[in-house]
Amino acid sequence: MFRNKSLFKCQVRFKDILTCLCSNAAKVEQKPPTTSLNFISQPTHFSHPNLLKSDEITPLIRKNEFKDRRKNLMNKIAQFTSQQSRSSKEYVVIIPSASKKYMSDKIPYFFRQNTEFLYLTGCQEPESCLVMICNELESYSSVLFIQGRDSHSELWDGPRICPSNVNDFFGIDQGLPMAEFENYLQLYLKLKPRASIWYDILSPIQMNTHNVIHNILKTGRNNMVESPKIFIDQQRIIKSPAEIELMRKTCQIASEAIIKTIETSRPGISEHEIFATVDYECRMKGAEYLAYPPVVAGGKRANIIHYITNNQIVNDGEMVLMDAGCEYHGYSSDVTRTWPIGGKYSKQQRELYEAVLKTQLDVIDLILGKHLQEVGLISKRISNDGLLKAAYKFCPHHVSHYLGMDVHDTPSITRNIPMRPGMVITVEPGVYVRDNDESVPKEYRGIGIRIEDDILITENGPEILTKHCPKDIEAIEKIAGKGL
Ligand SMILES: [Mn+2]
């Protein structure tokens, strides 16, 4: 199974060193693996044929797609490097996995893989690291450093993949134990002293990797260190057909879960119970977990944008603003609905709701001001310039962000670029009237409303991925009245 593949065909000396490293790696695996690809630390086609086809590493995403992602990243960096007309075109890209985090002694938090690492490898192991190098012939090779087999740890945490299976399973050229990472990097930089290092040194993800890089750089090296983030984000912002399928599914699950949650809500219910319902429904429909701590805000608490305490009772006559989404095989949804707990919007709630809904449908945040002017929250004498300022007072957050593997996806990409097919964005205008705001009529005070949908940009216009979740007044009142 072990493939003693040379990484640098053009560098005889380095090849020899690496061959030596590889055979050391083989020695580290003292015991022959008791498990094969059938049982590793994450689902495979063999262990979970219900989830994965034979060439898929994660559901719907094939080995070749992961290979293309790595190749595209290397191409982008190569392109950038040659545009800069640098003396050395050699570089190494280092993408660490997430670490296990503990809430208290030996009690772990649920593990969530570092998104960039997952995007480029499909690997779910903690304390790992992807290293990709570009050699002089502009060909690339990749190494996945992983913890490797360890019978004691595996007794507690379950099977791990062994380095010799990395190529077969992930399609990455080579697997090595994480313990070899420092040696490997040191040897590489010895042989390529002017190579640039593409590693996000300002936002360390995993201390093992970070400390190794930090220590190597401390020894007086002057290699250029740059973050590959922008190039990964440029790729991630356009979703592939497989990713689009996953986005459709995560949005559908969240939509259906929210319908159920609205249906079962009633006056006197606690926000906590609403939270539990949406969490349960998402998981029951196949999501792994919620994509973020949901906002379940009854009454005036809806004016606290990041209200996640979710521990109050929702009384008759109040609305609930719930912002909840789930993660389905690594892809996130992000939906907000605001419904009347008693099944009917009051006159003022209905007016403001319609204003937000109209705005949401218009998709343009500037128009938010216009609709609020119609309701009378903003004086009709205010000019267009003043309108934007006034609108900001009632909606202080962005009305859109990119969505994908992360809830706030690809944040290094500006929001001022034209929409392109394959992008997924949220549209989420809101209106928040503080209960002590004496500049607006009393009946509107304390009302907070947001409506948020997830939208895929296609050649033929926008596709609303959360369309299964109703948002017009009649449809919402119908489902909100069901549990009464
Ligand atoms: Mn959002």
UniProtKB/TrEMBL annotation:
GO terms for molecular function: hydrolase activity; metal ion binding. It holds the Pfam family Peptidase_M24. This is Aminopeptidase P N-terminal domain-containing protein. Belongs to the peptidase M24B family. The keyword Hydrolase applies. SMART domains: AMP_N. Residues 61-206 form the Aminopeptidase P N-terminal domain. Its cofactor is Mn(2+). Keywords: Hydrolase, Manganese, Metal-binding. It comes from Cryptolaemus montrouzieri.
